[in-house]
Input
Amino acid sequence: MTDPARRRAVYEDLFEIPRNMTGEIINGELIVTPRPSRKHTIVASRLGGEILPPYDFGRGGGPGGWIIIVEPEISFGEDVLVPGLAGWRRERFPREEPHNWISVAPDWVCEILSPNTTQVDRTEKMPIYSQHHVAYAWLIDPILKTLEVYRFEPGIWIGVGAYAKSAKVRAEPFPELELDLGILWLE
Output
């Protein structure tokens, strides 16, 4: 919890962090972490490469209808979060806004866990996502080589799947895609 004597972080504080760091505002506190590791960015790149063609572009007979972004800056009221990936149903995505952050909660977020971020991702960011009714959340651990899939039900996250190593997965909200987890890991 934030010390009441400490000033609450504001968006402009993000401009003061070093370029090799990532900044987020969580529960009034500026959280600064190192840029993602090689394993993290490989997972994000490869996952994006699998999800974007069928869901964002509708390629290969995919359903389309989504906007998927790697490391977007999203405003959840006073909180500003940067998930590994996030997706919006196309009709909900704000096309233009007068600021850098996206002001509409996504329909899906994917947090790629690292030793520096796991606790914050699980205990601070997941509750913010649920408060803003993000429908689905994925937690991917590139060290343990796992994927956890959650669906938001009123007031609670429901775990709908946990997968490891080279499992073949059809996970909400992308059930048409068979994702081979083995391609995500740096071997």
Remarks:
- The mean pLDDT is 95.
